[in-house]
Amino acid sequence: MSFLQRKRAIKLTADVAMAFAKDGAKWSHALIMNLAKKPKNKTLLRSILGSEYERLTKPCLSWKMPRAKKILQRSFKMHSRIKKGARRLPGVNAASVHAEAAVTRTKVLKRLVPGGEHWDNSSLLEETLDYVISLRAQVDLMHLLVKALNVPNLK
Amino acid sequence: MDINKKDKFGLEKTGDHPNYHSSGMSADRQFGNPSIGLVSAHPMVSSPCPSVSMVESFHPSLWNPSAHSQNSGFCGNNVQSSMAASNSLPAGNLVPGPLRLDMGWNPSDSSSKGSGIFLQTGPGVLSPSLSHFPTNSAFIERAARFSSFHGGNLNGMVSPFGTAESLSSYSNTPKGVLGAQIQQSKMSTTEARVDASLPVDHGSSSRSPMREQRDKGSLHGAGVLGNESAEPEFSGGAREEAPNLASPAGDSSSKGLAAKKRRRSDQDIEPDQLQGASQPSVGTSKDTMDTDQKPEQNSSTMATVKPNEKQANDSSDAPKEDCFHVRARRGQATNSHSLAERVRREKISERMKFLQDLVPGCNKVTGKAVMLDEIINYVQSLQRQVEFLSMKLAAVKPRLDFNMEGLLSKDLFHSRGGPSSSIGFSPDTIHPQLHPSQQALFQAGMSGIVNPSDALRTAINAQLSSINGYKEPMPQIPNAWNGELHNVMQMTFGANPPLNTQELNGKPCEGFPM
């Protein structure tokens, strides 16, 4: 295996292990599903997950917001936006800038957290919290491994 | 090469459990819960303890080997000895350590698979074992403060889970910290109410919703309950934040379970209150509510309050209560929409607070946008670190390591059945690359499986002794490194163009050994 292949395999394994360890979170399921989409990952995933492979790669739509609720939310947002728009002063408003900045950053965060595009804001934050914890643990573990295996530092 | 991955997988799995055990045991000692034997639930349950301790004390220099010496107070002997040993002999004893822990973990695993729904962040437990032990005492103090507050509630909630009795201690601890925080920040009136309702809670805690949630599966249950718990219109009480802390710890399902349980008990309490109390409660409109039970009960109490009236006076009269109704605060509109909005905003701000604790250096930062910025930077830096570390691990040439990792994985394979099928890799990948010397060592290792720690030690010694012979991998690596570093940089730039400058200037990457 080439160096890059190995690195990719290691990263894949680490991600799968992290996601698999945290089975109760939405992001873990989404991560495994994203990884399973690529055909070259399939064999590795299958061997790692073993019996759980089928269960985990089956798309779980329950945590995605149902369409009716999405429509409701969207109409509610439009409604509130209309109301706010009537009150807002013309010109650049500090509050509006602030709100827009928050919206753009939320979009970025949705891209970062696996599966984030489907959740609403509050559950996004919750999953982000969970994901950060798991990521940190993953980093710590890999540090441990590096130390244990005495990987030499390249200058 | 593949053995590296399995090693990581095995270590990661085993790494979770020591903290799980130890935190369970320490929690037991703190709360004096006699019913808690060996922690047997799913490894994830351990997380609330360590995750909160991580929250308290995450330092950039987390990866300080000297911090390992702090382990003594917290973890069991296994981890402690492994960590202490790691200071002196990084390669030698560290690997046997997780093995021992793994063997301790196995019995719990078999019984825990059934109760897999009660999950809390698992991976988080690893880092606390390394450096966060001094903080745990403070954490445990606060948890102990809260233990009486919530002990009955959680014991009742957890008992249906059979082997997962120790979960109550885990539920105690995160809620304990949460409670401590709340006590500092919220008014005590809410707590009085919660105290009154908690004993009733214990009795009326409905186990069936939890069981049915279990049956539906963790994710589905989490989704449904997450929506439901979005509804309960807490104007900010201990009970709502208790599930919220469980969720930051990573268990949305347990949070949902707790929320649902409290909702059920609340609904039981409500008729009593209706008869006894005289104040109508301002229920929020059920725009986003899924269940029908709340509206039925609330409509009876809302008879006098029309949702669309803006009655500041009424809302100021009604005291703030910690229940599923939202009391409109003084001077705020009692419009049903705005109430629901306010609830959602409060939920989000709560979660932001937890994230603030988690992301280092965000205590002074205020405002959603800046906070989100920091979170994004942090997540990106963590992801880049993972990338970088996987590169580093790929640099370990899979020659001698095969023995060690093959032994590790073999041991895992023997000790537990299920998803350790990564072991399947080892025979396939080992053979093509084994040298004769390694093969002999490997076989010796295999036969020494009975005493894996000794076998590992011999394998590692062999590795260390023969490491001199392997020079050829080094020259080819720098070229690959350059290519990969470009990839990492591209990942940085490609993922987030608008925030580029901030990324580069902002958060320092912690623990980067370069």
UniProtKB/TrEMBL annotation, chain A:
The IBH1-like N-terminal domain, residue ranges: 2-38
- What biological-process GO terms show up in the record? regulation of DNA-templated transcription
The cross-references to InterPro entries, in alphabetical order and at most eight, read: IBH1-like (IPR044660), IBH1_N (IPR059002)
Domain of life, per lineage? Eukaryota
Q: Which UniProt keywords apply?
A: Transcription, Transcription regulation
Q: What is this protein called?
A: Transcription factor IBH1-like
Species this protein is from: Cocos nucifera
Traced from the root, the source organism's taxonomic lineage reads: Eukaryota, Viridiplantae, Streptophyta, Embryophyta, Tracheophyta
UniProtKB/TrEMBL annotation, chain B:
Q: Pfam families, alphabetically?
A: HLH
Keywords recorded for this protein, A-Z: Nucleus, Transcription, Transcription regulation
Q: What PROSITE patterns is this protein classified in?
A: BHLH (PS50888)
- Polar residues bias spans: 181-191, 275-286
Q: Molecular function terms in GO for this entry?
A: DNA-binding transcription factor activity; protein dimerization activity
Q: Which PANTHER family match?
A: BHLH TRANSCRIPTION FACTOR, STEROL REGULATORY ELEMENT-BINDING PROTEIN
Spell out the protein name for this chain: Transcription factor bHLH49-like
Q: Which organism is it from?
A: Cocos nucifera
Q: According to the entry, what is the taxonomic lineage of the organism?
A: Eukaryota, Viridiplantae, Streptophyta, Embryophyta, Tracheophyta
